[in-house]
Structures are given as structure tokens and as C-alpha cells.
């Protein structure tokens, strides 16, 4: 049998190895990025901190809205200058931001209060509110929410923490125009109340939206539990809301610069998804708002069905300043992350 000399055979084998390596490199080059070996999530998919509203600069990132209340409340929203002069907004020695409703004078024209909105707008993100105390009492309508400055309800509204009078269950709600519905059964801890997010839905109250409620998570009940860390994740496909009352049991990565809710082993309190609802087309360009309205379209219209005194919400708000000493927000921080 014919046989090559050993040195020549070795040279040919080395050439084969080099040829195989060349083909391997070529194969890796033409693969799509999704096919390439991965060590985990791409950095572009991770959340990073974009706004930190906390400490002495908390209010610097907000606008004070002092226009008439769009929900027809018996309330007089104050400018920053007026609010500070009346000691309604300030940073405490503990670094906590306080937002009060006036509680020391008769108020026949409406009680002074606060409505602030972020100067920056957001489309999608992770919003983390560390809340120590929220406003409570008859006639109150406190809310932590997001919406667009213009185009309501076309660009949507996300109510994260909201309720009225002496309610203790949190109402988490979306408000939109036509074309957004939610299924009744979802992977969440809360209970679906209404399924049509359209503010003009024929089978719901005007502006009712699609709501989810959780028990003992609002008002006096929230304050008695020491407040809460409230997390809202808004993506192109879902809007999820968590309320964490035990700070010792918070997801560990909430203390990091890049939290990842996909790793949390806990269902959200509310889940809204793109089931018959194009979330990414509707919800965009939102500011974050914190306000305390009084009476108005919701608290006023349901005042008579509550256990609050009298029959007139406006009269109660005007004539009982001392009843509003606990109608205040105490906020450690609001942090916003985006991808």
C-alpha cells in the first residue's frame, strides 16, 4: 500500500484542522444574534435608573398644578410658592417628602391641597414608590397615577393607588378610549371588577375603566401597615402593579440599580395585558402624578353612601379643617427605571 512520509502526513492533518476552524468561524459570523451563545440577558434589556425623586431635591423634579380641579373637586390646588408659604409641602429632617391638605381654617371656596406631576414624561418603565403614609378621611380622594399631559383618554391613564372617603381597598385601573378590554381571569392576586377600559363603555359607569381591587391596601389600612413599596412595571405587553407591605421581604434586587421583576417569585396585585388591548399603541408620553382631591366626581358623588357625617361632602370639607390633619402624603422616594 502507498504511504505518505510522516512529516508530509502531519502537514496535511494540520491543514485540515485549519480548514475546519475557518468554516466554524464563518458559521458563527453568519448566525443571527439570537443564535449566538449567550451568557444571559443583553445589557440593553436590563433596567437602569433614569430618575430618582428623593431627599432634598424631591420636589425639583415636579410641576405644581394650580389650575381648577378637572374632576370638579371642592379643592384649591396650590403653586409651589403658595404651598411652601402655607407649609403644605416640605422635606422633613428625616429626608421624607410631605404633601399636606390644609387643616386649620374654614374653607368655603374649597380647601387648599396639592397636585404635582413630573416634569419628565415616560413611555414604559419600572416605577417604584416608597410610601410611608397616604391621605385619609371623609371627603378625600388621593391618587398616585400616570397619564399624558394632552390627549386623554387617547393616550391612556394608569391609576396605581386610588380610592375615596373611608375605603380601605385599593382600586388599580386603566382608562382608555375604545378598543381596550381585559379578561376576567388573570394571573394576579387582585380581583377584577370591570373588564372594559373604555371610559365610554355602554355597560359601565362613565369613566369607570377596567379595574382590579385588593383588600386592605389603601387608606387607613395601608397606613396601619406602615405604608408600602408600590411597584409598577409598564412594558409593551403588560402593566403590572405590586404592593409590598413587608419591607423585610422585598425582592432583593429592588435595592440594586437594575431590578428585574421577571425573577420575582410573587404574582402582581394587578395585571393588565395586551388581550384585546394594544398597550404599546395606547399608553405613551405619561407624567407621574400625586394629588389629593376633595369631593368631586367620585368622592363627592359617593359621599352619601359612605359612613361619613352629614349628606354634603362640600359642606363637610369646608367646615371641618381639623378632619384633614391626616390627609397627607409622606414619601421616602420615587424611582423610575427604563430599558
TrEMBL record:
Recorded GO MF terms: hydrolase activity, hydrolyzing O-glycosyl compounds
Organism superkingdom: Eukaryota
Ranges for domain GH16: 26-307
Gene3D superfamilies in the cross-refs: 2.60.120.200
GO biological process annotation, one example: glucan catabolic process
Pfam families in alphabetical order: GH16_XgeA (PF26113)
Name by which UniProt lists this protein: Endo-beta-glucanase
Organism annotation: Protomyces lactucae-debilis
